[in-house]
């Protein structure tokens, strides 16, 4: 009977768990890692970015975003939207083509792959015959033209990818219409570019690598004219009125070819090397756009003088007398221009440039061509992220002040709205305002609006101005001399080269009620900052705290302490530092916490911890936790490693500044890479000989870094007896030790005068000696104590101070609940001893029920070194759910994870992207958006089926069928092809095999 | 329950012993001592004799080390060791020699009083630290061996390495290759090697009752380290010729005598007559670990220091008068826990101490006062040792 009741109870619990917990990865924030292709649909106003890992991401208006992933692990090399449709085509590194569509489903759009295709050549033909080098999505929306390495152009009908063999344009057909003296010397090389005439959709220009441009009539199936540039072709642009073709070349020149009357050979009308005299690099892409009544815009990438500026990543914009060479921070992937007007064929309004590390949008309508701040795709890694901190439910007042301070920083941005506006964002307004703070290697803290799908930058805090940093005054690269040629202008914010590694931010704690912020860094510096709406000039008071407390035999070999500026410093509106604590020795700060009600900040390093009273600017407590045998902590990080990093950084700078030709660079760098690869292989071979083995040894007290402080916690609880609660500080070390101190605070009216004192109260040495990663005090009802000032703002129920409190100590291996004030074990949960996983990140969260409004539970969320997230019930520390979240090999991803108070989490999936996940059934932040097919497509393609994307739900099944039939079509076609291939094989066995490829193309044409 | 398994001692002898149960008069003394005052065992021995007024009586000295094991003091070396372990209290148990030693049975001859003979002097079992045992012989297949390593019983490193490997299993579908974890190396004169119960290429099957199948090498490593103070590994020995035959089968003693690799420090099995239930103890214990709410005896050894014994940070002492001085929170300790201490001890230690018949009892009253004074003396001079 008892067992039965228990069973019923358990099933009830299971049902409740389903209402409380659910694991989903919702959205990726930031900039895609290693982008490799860019596409844009003027009719949908959507932008597509493909990456080297095979992801495809679509972006429209802020909040409108889609993501897809190719099954193949191959880089996306090109992306094309089908004109006036919701389909897009991707070309991958493995020569496969994929068709995607935005399918309507339950009132929302989703990105779905609907077909894939691989160009099959005749049997025995070299792979270059079908290796696709250029793609043209024809304006009819029904054809794809695929130019290949072998020089052929294959025509494929879409959707369905049906090869129209009779329409293929073979190399032979092209050569037959070109003067023999041109052909005689060499072959035409690959198809470099394909362009459709803006005036006549039957005419396409085919540009070959060697330079030849042929204008082909698709209907008559013949070449109607040809152009013979003398240089290698890089790109081609057909002007809008159809009157001329621009070609850009490998020597940094471009030509404008006016298309005269039919039959005439075209004259090289205008040829120019914009940055000429000395040899120049190739112009990779050229675009010319007319303006109403004014001079046209000419935009091109590359073309820089090879020797002097060959290493710059530039796009030059020329309009009338204005010429600017935008100098980007990393390699240019691609660019496009957005145009005004109802049909988006008007004036060029914005230049969108995708470079390897960021997206830059330049306003071409405002004087001076300022940059438009992007609402998404912001490079999180403009300086490497070193830590992050999430604060939920920011009070409106603080939110507005931070935004106001941030706006003052962004005055150099264009006032124009974001020009990419496709799709509708249907997501509900976020229920609360959330802040994500990221600390960076260069000493900055960036504030992001993490409430919704778009991770928006709000404010940037720089701590470097407080110190005399190592910065080289000559390092300023943004300076540009007057009258410099080419007319460079630096754009973009990606700058991973930190001047002084000691400035790096390690820990952040923001009190959302008081606006106090504390940040701590690599050289033992702890800054206290206060939000001020006005700029102010003030001297920052520095206080040195000796954490060694007279410990002998110590020699610090790490970096030196930062020098605080003694003179007043002008701080802009925003968070302004008012006091700095500097730990001695200046080791990296490993734990930090703030209690804004008590006006205390606690900090810890590998040597000990301290409490600082930031009201009186006095040290309250210092405790040395250093183990005398701990050599590593004594001496600091190996200086050799640091110097290598520093010299690397400097050499990177040199490379960026050097005026050496890129080709030389390439040779030397490829040689270096080969050398490094060879070394790596040798090392790998060595490793394979000796099997991987692990030492089994009990942790002893003389392991290194046992005294390192892992966690600090302020709590108002029962430390000495069960009738009087008092403020306390708890510190957990890497060696499994917990120190507790009672804090004696003077009464409020004497707070500014009387000293705050601390007294040691307890010391717990965990038998298993695993690092203590978290400490939480649970109140009489088993709920975690509220945050400081949370109660004062009526935002939390007051903690139960009548029942007995409990102490929850979270080590990497166990969760242990102790009674208070007498410390004895009450409950525990072993993690490592049972399945070998170790706790890496932990957080307290509130889970609301999806079904019962108002019901919720506190839970403990943690992530293990295996990459699994778990939820533990409180106060009983029982595992509720467990989900694999991060690959266990992704150590930096696991280390970067932060949890929110709502049961969400963030972790880095690349240096520049956060993945957002949720363990809660409520407050899901994920893209919900709709993209409708352009009206234009319905009008011009009446014979086609209904637009693919609609808002009605009942149509979704039909859409699926469509997609399926399309896929089937592809399959059938492939089979058909195979049959033909078989015949061809038979034929080829009879005939001459060597001359076969040409034969085949001919027969296909005939 | 410490000796209820077949035990391996650091001795090339089979030791047979019964429960020690003596009732004799006890005397309890507590005194301070300068740490550098006594350098030799003999000097100390005589001091004790004079304190207890037992001149001319042969006594056996034992002390409880930090793990709670009773260890002998009979020469300068282990006397120094005992002194070094005082932290700051050192408990010494003095027993009259004739009363304790029941002697050693060697070769079936009568008991030999070691004092009178020049032959090898061997103390009673409690003079030795148990370092390993084979357990659960009754419930395991003959080809497997479950070994318990007592880390806290020794200063030696556990001393072994593990690696990934391929294990061959016979399944109904035939022979199958599955990934497994194996012992790759034994550290010379480490604990693992000295037991003679583990060997290179033995396959690790379980760690403290948890199957390691499907776990990565790093996971298994962390599991073992997490359980290192009481590590129970189930192995499939690479050498299957020395397997333990469960009790009840023929020639059990003969077989057990050959356990352990020849030439190494001989390990011996002492078969006691325990009920099978106690053998399955580790498994039930581990399954309750998985439940997560167990209150387990073996590792609840967190050392907790309350405020009165911590050096005060504030310059003016005396605010701690109301705080409790005794920590007796362990429910298993009961009335036996008369040890005046402010360091709470592992339960296993308390249990071990209460088993030992030489412990003083009936000393609850009046201890509080002496504790208070001893605390005072400790504060004044950190080098003073109280006995």
TrEMBL record, chain B:
Transferase found in the keyword field: no
Region annotation Disordered: where it falls in the sequence: 237-387
Cellular component terms per the entry's GO annotation: apical plasma membrane; bicellular tight junction; cell cortex; nucleus
Keyword Plastid included in the entry's annotation: no
Domain PB1: 17-97
PDZ domain ranges (all copies): 146-239
Comp. bias intervals (Acidic residues): 293-305
Gene Ontology BP, a term: regulation of cellular localization
Biased composition (Basic and acidic residues): 377-387
Similarity comment text for this entry: Belongs to the PAR6 family.
The protein's name: Par-6 family cell polarity regulator alpha
Record organism: Fundulus heteroclitus (Killifish)
Taxonomic classification: Eukaryota, Metazoa, Chordata, Craniata, Vertebrata
């Amino acid at each position: 009977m008892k067992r039965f009741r228990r069973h019923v109870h358990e099933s009830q619990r299971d049902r409740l768990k389903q209402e409380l917990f659910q694991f989903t990865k919702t959205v990726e924030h930031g900039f895609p890692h290693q982008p490799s292709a860019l596409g844009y649909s003027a009719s949908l106003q959507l932008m597509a970015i493909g990456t080297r890992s095979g992801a495809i991401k679509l972006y429209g208006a802020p909040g409108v975003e889609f993501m897809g992933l190719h099954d193949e692990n191959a880089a996306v090399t090109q992306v094309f939207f089908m004109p006036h449709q919701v389909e897009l085509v991707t070309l991958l590194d493995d020569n496969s083509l994929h068709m995607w569509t935005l399918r309507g489903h339950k009132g929302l759009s989703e990105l779905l792959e609907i077909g894939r295709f691989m160009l099959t050549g005749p049997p025995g033909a070299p792979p270059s015959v079908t290796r696709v080098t250029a793609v043209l999505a024809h304006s009819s929306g029904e054809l794809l033209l695929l130019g290949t390495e072998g020089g052929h152009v294959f025509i494929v009908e879409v959707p369905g990818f049906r090869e129209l063999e009779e329409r293929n344009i073979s190399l032979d057909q092209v050569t037959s219409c070109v003067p023999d003296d041109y052909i005689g010397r060499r072959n035409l090389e690959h198809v470099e570019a394909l362009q459709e005439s803006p005036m006549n959709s039957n005419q396409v220009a085919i540009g070959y690598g060697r330079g030849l441009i042929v204008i082909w009539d698709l209907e008559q199936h013949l070449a109607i004219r040809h152009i013979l540039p003398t240089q290698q072709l890089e790109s081609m642009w057909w002007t809008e009125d159809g009157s001329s073709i621009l070609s850009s070349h490998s020597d940094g020149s471009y030509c404008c070819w006016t298309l005269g009357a039919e039959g005439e050979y075209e004259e090289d009308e205008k040829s120019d090397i914009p940055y000429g005299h000395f040899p120049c690099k190739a112009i990779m892409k050229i675009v010319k756009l007319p303006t109403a009544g004014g001079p046209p815009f000419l935009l091109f990438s590359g073309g820089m003088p090879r020797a002097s500026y060959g290493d710059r990543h530039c796009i030059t914009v020329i309009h009338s007398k204005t010429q600017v060479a935008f100098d980007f921070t990393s390699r240019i992937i691609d660019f496009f221009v957005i145009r005004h007007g109802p049909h988006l064929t008007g004036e060029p309004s914005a230049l969108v440039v995708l470079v390897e590390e960021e997206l830059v949008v330049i306003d071409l309508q405002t004087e001076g061509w300022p940059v438009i701040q992007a609402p998404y795709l912001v490079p999180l890694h403009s300086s490497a992220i070193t830590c992050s901190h999430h604060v939920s439910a920011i009070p409106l007042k603080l939110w507005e002040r931070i935004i106001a301070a941030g706006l003052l920083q962004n005055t150099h941005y264009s006032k124009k709205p974001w020009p990419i506006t496709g799709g509708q964002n249907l997501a509900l307004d976020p229920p609360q305002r959330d802040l994500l703070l990221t600390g960076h290697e260069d000493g900055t803290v960036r504030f992001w609006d993490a409430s919704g799908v778009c991770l928006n930058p709000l404010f940037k805090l720089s701590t470097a101005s407080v110190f005399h940093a190592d910065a080289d005054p000559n390092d300023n690269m943004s300076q540009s001399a007057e009258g410099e040629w080419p007319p460079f202008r630096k754009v973009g914010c990606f700058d991973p080269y930190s001047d002084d590694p000691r400035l790096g931010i390690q820990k952040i704690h923001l009190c959302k009620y008081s606006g106090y912020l504390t940040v701590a860094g690599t050289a033992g510096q702890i800054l206290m900052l206060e939000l001020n709406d006005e700029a102010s000039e003030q001297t920052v008071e520095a206080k040195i705290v000796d954490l060694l407390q007279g410990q002998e035999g110590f020699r610090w070999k790490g970096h030196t302490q930062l020098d605080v500026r003694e003179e007043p410093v002008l701080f802009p509106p925003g968070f302004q530092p008012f006091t700095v604590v500097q730990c001695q020795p200046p080791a990296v700060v490993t734990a930090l916490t703030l209690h804004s009600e008590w006006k205390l900040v606690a900090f810890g390093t590998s040597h000990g911890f301290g409490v600082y009273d930031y009201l009186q600017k006095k040290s309250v407590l210092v405790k040395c936790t250093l183990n005398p045998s701990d050599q590593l902590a004594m001496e600091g990080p190996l200086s050799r490693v640091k110097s290598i990093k520093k010299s690397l950084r400097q050499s990177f700078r040199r490379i960026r500044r050097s005026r050496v030709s890129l080709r030389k660079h390439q040779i030397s760098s490829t040689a270096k890479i080969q050398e490094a690869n060879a070394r790596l292989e040798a090392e790998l071979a060595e490793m394979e000989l000796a099997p991987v083995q692990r030492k089994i040894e009990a942790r002893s007290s003389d392991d290194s870094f046992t005294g390192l402080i892992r966690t600090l916690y302020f709590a108002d609880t029962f430390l000495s007896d069960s009738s009087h609660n008092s403020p306390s500080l708890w510190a957990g070390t890497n060696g499994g030790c917990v120190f507790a101190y009672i804090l004696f605070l003077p009464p409020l009216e004497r707070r500014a005068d009387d000293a705050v004192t601390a007294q040691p109260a307890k010391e717990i040495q965990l038998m298993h000696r695993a690092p203590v990663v978290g400490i939480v005090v649970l109140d009489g009802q088993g709920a975690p104590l509220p945050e400081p000032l949370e109660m004062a703002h009526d935002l939390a129920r007051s903690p139960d101070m009548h029942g007995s409190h409990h102490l929850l100590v979270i080590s990497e291996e166990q969760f242990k609940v102790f009674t208070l004030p007498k410390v004895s074990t009450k409950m525990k949960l072993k993690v490592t001893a049972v399945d070998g996983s170790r706790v890496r990140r932990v957080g307290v969260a509130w889970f609301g029920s999806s079904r019962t409004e108002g019901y919720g539970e506190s839970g403990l969320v943690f992530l293990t070194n295996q990459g699994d997230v778990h939820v533990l019930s409180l106060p009983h520390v029982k595992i509720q759910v467990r989900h694999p979240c991060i690959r266990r090999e992704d150590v930096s991803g696991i280390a970067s994870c932060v949890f929110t108070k709502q049961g969400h989490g963030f972790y880095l999936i690349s240096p520049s992207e956060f993945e957002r996940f949720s363990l809660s059934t409520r407050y899901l932040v994920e893209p919900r958006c709709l993209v409708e097919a352009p009206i234009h497509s319905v009008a011009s393609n009446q014979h086609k089926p209904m637009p693919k994307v609609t808002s009605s739900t009942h149509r979704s099944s039909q859409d699926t069928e469509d997609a399926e039939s399309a896929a089937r079509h592809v399959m059938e076609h492939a089979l058909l092809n195979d049959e033909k291939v078989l015949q061809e094989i038979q034929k080829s066995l009879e005939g001459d095999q060597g001359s076969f490829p040409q034969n085949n193309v001919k027969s296909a044409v005939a | 329950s410490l000796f209820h398994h077949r035990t391996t001692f650091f001795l090339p002898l089979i030791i047979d012993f019964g429960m020690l149960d003596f009732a004799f008069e006890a005397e309890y003394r507590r005194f301070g001592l300068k740490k550098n005052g006594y350098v030799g065992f003999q000097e100390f021995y005589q001091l004790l004799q004079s304190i207890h007024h037992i001149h001319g009586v042969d006594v056996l000295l034992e002390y409880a080390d930090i793990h709670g094991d009773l260890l002998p003091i009979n020469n300068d070396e282990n006397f120094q060791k005992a002194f070094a372990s005082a932290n700051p209290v050192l408990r010494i148990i003095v027993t009259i020699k004739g009363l304790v030693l029941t002697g050693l049975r060697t070769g079936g001859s009568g008991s030999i009083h070691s004092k009178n003979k020049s032959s090898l002097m061997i103390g009673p079992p409690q003079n030795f630290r148990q370092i390993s045992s084979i357990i659960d012989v009754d419930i395991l297949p003959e080809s497997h061996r479950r070994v318990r390593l007592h880390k806290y019983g020794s200063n030696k490193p556990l001393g072994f390495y593990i690696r990934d490997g391929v294990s061959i299993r016979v399944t109904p579908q035939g022979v199958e290759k599955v990934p497994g974890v194996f012992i790759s190396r034994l550290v010379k004169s480490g604990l693992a090697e000295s037991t003679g119960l583990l060997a290179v290429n033995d396959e690790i099957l379980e760690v403290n009752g948890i199957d390691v199948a499907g776990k990565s090498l790093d996971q298994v490593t962390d599991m073992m380290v997490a359980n290192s103070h009481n590590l129970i590994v189930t192995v499939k020995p690479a050498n299957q010729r020395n397997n333990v035959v469960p009790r009840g089968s023929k020639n059990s003693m003969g077989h057990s005598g050959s356990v352990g690799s020849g030439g190494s420090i001989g390990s011996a099995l002492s078969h006691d007559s325990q009920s099978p239930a106690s053998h399955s103890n580790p498994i039930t214990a581990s399954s309750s670990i998985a439940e997560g709410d167990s209150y387990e005896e073996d590792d609840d050894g967190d050392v907790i220091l309350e405020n009165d014994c911590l050096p005060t940070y504030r310059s003016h002492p005396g605010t701690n008068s109301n705080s409790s001085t005794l920590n007796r929170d362990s429910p298993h300790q009961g009335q036996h826990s008369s040890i005046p201490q402010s360091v709470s001890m592992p339960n296993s230690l308390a249990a071990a101490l209460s088993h030992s018949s030489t412990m003083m009892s009936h000393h609850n009253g009046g201890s509080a006062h002496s504790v208070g004074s001893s605390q005072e003396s400790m504060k004044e001079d950190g080098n003073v040792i109280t006995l």
